[in-house]
Amino acid sequence: MVSVRGAGFAPYEIKDISVHVGQVVTVPIQLSVSSVEQTVSVTDTAVVVDPTRSGTSSLVGQRDINDLPINGRRVDQFALLATGVTTDGNNGEMSFHGIPNGNSYLQDGVDVTSQWFLGNAGSNASTIAVLSSISQDAVQEFQVQSAGFSAEFGRAAGGVINTLTKSGTNNLHGSGFWFWRNQSFNAIDLFSKLNGVPYNPPEHRNQAGGSVGGPIIKDKLFFFVNTEETRRFYPLVSSLVNPSILVTGDPSHNFAAGVCTATAAQCAAAQAYLARLFTTVNRSLAQNSGFAKLDWRPNDRHSFTANFNLVNFSSPDGIVTTIAPTDGSGVGANGNIETHIRNGRFSDTFIISNAMLNEFRFGYNKDRRGESYDSSLVPPNGLRSALTVAGQGNLGVWPNQLPNIQPTEDRFDFVDNLSWTKGKHQLKFGLDIAHTSDTENAVYNGPGTFTYGTVTAFAQDLAPAAGDPLAGKHWQSFSQALGQPITSVYIRDYDFFAQDQWQIFHALTLNFGLRYDYSQYSQPPLNPDYPETGKLNEPGTNFAPRLGFAYSPNHNKTVIRGGYGFFYSRLPASTITRLQQLGGVVRKSFTLSSSNPAQFALGPSFPNNLTTPVNQLVNAGFAIPDLATPRTH
User: Fold this and answer.
1) pLDDT number for residue 615
2) How far is the C-alpha of 87 from the C-alpha of 348, rounded, in Å?
3) Taking all residues of the chain, what is their mean pLDDT, rounded to a whole number?
4) Cα–Cα distance, 265 to 274 (Å, whole number)
5) From CA 439, how far away is CA 424, in angstroms rounded?
6) Apex 622 CA angle, 621 and 628, nearest 5
7) pLDDT surpassing 70 at residue 48
8) 516 pLDDT band (50/70/90 cuts)?
């Protein structure tokens, strides 16, 4: 409620004002002259338009979250209701105006973006590494800013999703739920076939949880807790559809005519090897999440909040998420995946005066993801390398070293904002200082990759003939990377902003501001043979001006908005990690060709790989000297 009193004027009150996440509410007040005691009381109704905002944003409120159906209860998918937002591939990440990995995810104003892939916490560039980074029932609402956002928000070239979590109140309240789904509700996927017959694999999904919140000390101390559990069993149907190698639709998986000209026994061995790709893989997943929050209001000026969110996700054979892959990946590129998320936050909101307010926020985020083998899917001949035959990949194992940790990420984030109302100006100043560390325990292509030009050559190595002088070495090329598996990097962000919302007159508001982003990175080790390898540019001129206006010519019934600005994203920690490894110091990667006798002599015999690098053939890579931070405007 807002109340206004002045000598000679009737008291004015306006009630039931709704203030949503990321919103500045303008309350129009008109005082009438009065010589007798009277009170004008107004109950606020829904505001149709915001006459001061110049950017493009949408609010997803509690009604939307409760009433709209969503598959899997991934709450950030409601951002798809906003203009210019769509999904990016299988992993479900948000793409703003065609920018999938340049967005910022906030939870109660604290950055929870995964620096590794620049997605939401727990995200992965190519697969689903977590169902949702927070329970849907723990979310009060969130704001989706897709264009023209103010200087307060940065580290995003696409959009910003700011999630507000629920809090306890003076009333004890709670909720519970259970959702169930199975394959009886599913249509048969067009490519889902078992032995050539259409097949609807089992699908069992159970999601249950509950929330409770209320007072610990009335009007002073409140609590809210939430939990959500998911169990899903959803086997995938793996197959290999490649008419240039196999007869399409043949339940015996015979080779196409003339594909294999080795001995009958060798061709039969190769055929049996590929037949393992035609199977049902018993994929499943389990996710447990919990959220707890305390709000303390010791007086009218101070408000303290502390909350903690955790998610544990595991999925045996869940690296591949499609229902019926036809490229062999369901077996040859699959494995187990685990993800663990921890988010902690503390905030203090202090009303300094009637015109000044300070917000302090501290956040700690931890994101850990790992992958491992499923021993039942690895090739029976002891091969632990990737394999491509006649252009067909996914025939060996995943080329990334398994097991791995990719990554363990820790971020400490300190935010302080000062808001000051001065006449027609609403000023805001702030800083955001973050330290992020990422550690990877993996060697991409560490197991090596065999490439065969023909099925015949592969068959000759799979089942070598007695007396064959090239037994195990009919491959076309072999590549591998060897070296230190653990790589650690850091990123230090120093961000500052100042902005002003100037209401020039009732119908016209001007928004302008300036943001400065500066990042420090771990510098890659120097390879004396390549001086460029020892430097990763740290741009010092990332100034981001923002300018916008909002004009309402007919008493807030219509608003005309416009704006322009510079918006910087950030370098992914995965890129910074690769630059540590590419210089040929930490890792040594090499490729051997059978057409080069010297290289061929150094190569391994199938299915083995090398244990020491071939130093004279080491590949090296580095960043361009003026590598810049991604930017849009």
Assistant:
1) 66
2) 35
3) 88
4) 14
5) 49
6) 145
7) no
8) very high
Calpha distance 15→1 (Å, rounded): 4
Distance (Å, rounded) from C-alpha 377 to C-alpha 276?
Answer: 9
Residues in the chain: 633
All residues at 6 or more sequence positions from 414 whose CB lies less than 8 Å from its CB, including other chains: 361, 362, 431, 432, 433, 434
Q: Residue 328: which residues within 8 A CB-CB, separation 6 or more? A: 238, 239, 240, 277, 392, 393, 394, 395
Q: 71-95: b or e for each residue (b if 16 or more CB lie within 10 Å)?
A: ebbbbbbbbeebebbeebeebbbbb
CB atoms within 10 A of CB 508: 16
pLDDT at 22 (0 to 100): 57
CA distance 77 to 58: 13
Best CA proximity match to 476, nearest among 353, 550, 389: 389
Of the candidates 303, 482, 468, 461, which has an alpha carbon nearest to the alpha carbon of residue 387? 461
First to last CA, the chain: 39
Q: Give me the residues paired with residue 120 across strands.
A: none
Task: Look at 551 and 41; give whichever has higher pLDDT.
Answer: 551
Q: Closest Cα partner for 324 from 239, 227, 198?
A: 239
pLDDT in tens, 266-280: 999 999 999 999 999
Q: What is the pLDDT of residue 46?
A: 47
Query: What H or E segment, with its residue span, contains residue 462?
Result: helix 455-462
> Do the bridges between strand 12-15 and strand 2-4 make them parallel or antiparallel, or are there none, so unpaired?
antiparallel
The 10s digit of each residue's pLDDT in 350-369 is 999 999 999 999 999 999 99
Element (H, E) at 63: helix 62-67
Q: Is the pTM of this model over 0.90?
A: no
CA distance 447 to 445: 5
Per the CB < 8 A criterion, the answer to whether 348 and 303 are in contact is yes
Give the integer Cα–Cα distance in Å for 53 and 44: 19
- Determine the Cα–Cα distance for residues 169 and 191; give it in Å rounded to an integer: 51
Cα-Cα-Cα-Cα torsion 52, 54, 55, 59, nearest 10 degrees, comes to 20
**Of 257, 245, 609, which is closest to residue 453 (Cα–Cα)?**
245
Q: For residue 407, is the peptide bond before it cis, meaning its omega torsion is within 30 degrees of 0?
A: yes
What is the pLDDT, as a whole number, of residue 540? 95
CA distances to 5, 20, 630 from 44, in Å: 18, 14, 43
Give the tens place of pLDDT for each residue, 210-233: 999 999 999 999 999 999 999 999
Pairing mode, strands 160-165 and 356-372 = unpaired
Strands 486-505 and 560-565, by their bridges, are unpaired
